Protein 1
Amino acid sequence: MAGAKKKQFRFSANDDIILLREVLANDPYSSAEPGKKWDEIADATELQGLSGRRCRERTSLLLTYYKKEDAEALKRSGTEEEVEEKHQLLQEIKELQEEQVSRLESENKKKEKQRKNRSGDKKGGFGNIALETYSCWSSDRFAPLNGPSSCGRNG
């Protein structure tokens, strides 16, 4: 049975709500290991045959519909209450994503500023330091510069 196919999972409106609740509860966007978080979400939903990847893809699709304000795609199945709850959950998940993006951008700016400060202190980087320290040849290798006469020159 090496070629046995998995049965395709079709999401109902209720399945979407269960999934979105678990996404909010587990917040995979701020995790250091999002793949494991999505697997935990798949297990927590208790929906048969659902993988972490499938959960991530479905959540992403629902968010795309939500961001495009594609109400028809979100209303395809479900009662008015389910559609409202789905909208509310998607809004909260969108905010989680935006918080994570903002947090990452802030961290990147901070790291960039630190890197610029470190490179600015060196005034020219490693190349100039090497040239200042080792400036003349002696016996097929660089010899440290010990003053004006170290290369056999006067001043």
Protein 2
Amino acid sequence: MTEMSAKTSHEPTSIAEAEEVQEAPLQEPHESHGHSVAAWTGVLIMLAGFTVGTLGIWFDQAILTWVGVAAVAVGAVAWPVLARLGFGPKAH
């Protein structure tokens, strides 16, 4: 087992390679991970829609269920519309 792990692990063979490995970032830095007004608004509208729809199913109220379904659809449309209006993630 130790022989297999020795083969799969990569050990630096020179000082230059060791310094390169230490300086390499684990991930590329990102300015935004989708945190925008458009994204948050769309998700919150859809979350409210799922909540209302779930309550409609729970209390056996068809109109409440369909209001929830409509809210999910509105949230799914609001997200890209708001992004195109300038509320999306900022360019890097």
Protein 3
Amino acid sequence: MSESILTTTSFDTLAEQKPEDKPKLEQKDESQVLEQERSYLVSEVEYKKLLRKLDIHLLPFISLLYLLSFLDRANIGNARIAGLGVDLHLDGLKYNVNLRYLF
């Protein structure tokens, strides 16, 4: 039953369509295409300005996050010795799984 459904739809009917029945693509002249291409071009100076601006705004924040991550990793061993595992009921594998997120 499903075979008859598949055979009724064929590519022959699509090929028989007249050209005026097919959707027409919008024709653009060369000046419109060139104007669109110019709007996307960025000079090397503008590109360097953008990178500098991103560096100035993002690097301090990322550096702070890296510092805090390092402090956490350095102190987790001291916290376990001081009783963190006992207080939070982290024994064996539970402590190791939680420690994995810091690294």
